[in-house]
Amino acid sequence: MEAGSVSTVPADGALSGSSASTNGVAVLDDYAYLNKGTELMRVNRATGATSVIAGSADTTTCQDGSTGSQVRFVAMPGGVIRIVGSDGRFIYLIDNCGVRRVDPATGATTTPVAQRLAGASYPLVYGTIAGKWLYLHDTQTYLWRYDLTSGGTATRFGVSNTYRPGGAIAADNTYIYFPGYYGTLNRADTTTGTATQIATGLPSTSLTALLSVGDYLYAT
Prior knowledge:
The chain is mainly beta. The chain has no helices and 19 strands.
């Protein structure tokens, strides 16, 4: 990632006026996708023009739909809906209903992964996409993964309690990266699940975003 100029897209204030916060951005073709509260917005990256492709403002009931206007998203505790990313076809986000998969052309939305997985003690909050896999973190204990190609059921992708995740996660085709407790950064092999500590000195508070680009990880 080279240094360069920074500009605001869309214009200041275009995403204001909602009771739920914006968390994460997915980029697909000429558009960026992010939430304005419980609405999923599409932003033209060239012009900054915005439109709602799915959801409605300040909704509290989960609902899938064949069109964007039928869809209802629900913010998690703290007013959070987290945009996970794109697999090149769909936009994925996590809300209080689970993992939601949105067709960017029509706004049609399904829920392939329920919010509370079997065997999970805590709800899903963080996710990341690498190749055909959607990796998920249930806020306290476990990593999970879901095959975006074949579907099915999300399965636990375990690492030992020594390396329990403590915030946002990122992944590439080789490793899953996640902050541990006490300011550590860990990675787990995507084939074996074996985890190792690779860095210390991170903020003691949970990271809310983590991104793998080339040889670097970027975090907030």
